[in-house]
Amino acid sequence: MPCTYEDRLEIIAAYVRHQLPEQAQESFEEHYLGCDECGRDLLLMEKTALVMKRHGDLIFQRRHRTPAFLRNFLHRKTHDSIGALAVHWLRAHGPALAGYAVLVLILGAGYFWLDRYQHTAGDESSGQYDEAGTAGPSFSAGQTPAHLRQPEWPASSVAGVPDPALAQMWEEARQAYEKQQYQQALPLLASLVQALPDQPRLLLFQGVSLLRIGKPEAARAVLHDLVQRQPDDSAAQWFLAESCLEQDPDQAQLLYEQLAARGDSLYRAAARQRIHRH
User: Fold this and answer.
1) Distance CA 108, CA 56 (A)
2) Is the same domain home to 102 and 18?
3) CATH number of the domain bearing residue 189
4) Which pLDDT does position 36 carry in this prediction?
5) Which terminus in the chain has less CB density within 10 A, N or C?
6) Residue 148 forms part of a structural domain
7) Which of 87, 121, 155 marks a domain boundary?
């Protein structure tokens, strides 16, 4: 069903620019966590804003150096008034058109990325996992969107593993993790963590797998190590907080507050909801 949130695109734009009043911000966050359409548009708008922030000057820079062959062509005299007008128009607006074309390509790539992300994340239902690694009743962390229950493990990440044997193990671990076969993934992840200390992201997948088979203490130790190494990793902080919910709710609350203050948008909104809930 299409989203009927009033003025949602304007609100998303204001949210990305941090210009929404606090009450409107909380209302929108409560809405988009359950709305796939708004979540998709928010993610796309944030990525577009980031690209424009980094490369906007280059995209819209009007003083481009025209290639020599094109410059010579444009400087040729023509007796055709229409041709002369076209040449003049190209000289005046060609660089801007090139910038807009680049922007369209960036937006198209963003939509492609979002489509692939949603396809990978899927619509798994939240739940706790038993010792066999299969879905069971809902777990204590509560109902959360798919990307907050199981962070994505990109297939392209295997490119950073030069050893063929480790690359094969990496792929087997990734496939087991994506299929939520956590018991099968864990021994592979343990070996990869030992063999590839320069790949700290593996600790996230290991911690999530431990959390999903009902071993929050072991997950907490792994995720704490990751947060120490990458203190700005919002996903690591989120799942560390999840692992603390049962045994150390005060620590979980502290982690949620940190995420609510400076985490990525998706984790920030979810953390605020957890704070209000607890």
Assistant:
1) 16
2) yes
3) 1.25.40.10
4) 80
5) N
6) no
7) 121
Per 3-state DSSP, the chain is made up of helix, strand and coil in percentages (nearest 5) of 70, 0, 30
Single-letter residue type at 230:
Q
| Residue whose token pair is 């040449």 | 87
Residue reference for tokens 């005046």: 92
- pTM of the entire predicted model: 0.51
- The pair of structure tokens assigned to 141 is 């962390």
* 63, 86, 121 - which closes a domain: 121
pLDDT digits (tens, 9 = 90+) for 254-276: 988 888 887 666 778 788 877 77
SS3 label, residue 135: strand
Report the distance separating Cα 134 and Cα 270, nearest Å: 25
CB 52 within 8 A of CB 99: no
Amino acid in the structure at residue 234:
S
Total domains in the chain come to 2
176 — pLDDT class (breaks 50, 70, 90):
very high
Q: How far apart are CA 11 and CA 45, in angstroms?
A: 11
Q: Cβ distance 226 to 255 under 8 Å? A: no
Q: Give the alpha-carbon dihedral of 70, 72, 78, 82, to 10 degrees.
A: 20
Which residues constitute the domain of residue 12?
A: 8-121
* Residue owning tokens 């607890």: 278
Residue 70 lies in a domain: yes
102 and 170 housed in the same domain: no
166 within 8 A of 185, measured Cβ to Cβ: no
Backbone angles phi, psi at 246, to 5 degrees: -80, -50
Decide: 254 and 224 in contact? Cβ < 8 Å: no
Contact 46, 16 (CB under 8 A): yes
Q: Is residue 158 part of a domain?
A: no
143 found inside a domain: no
- Farthest CA pair distance, the chain: 84
The average pLDDT across 139-168 equals 69
Pair (13, 66) in one structural domain: yes
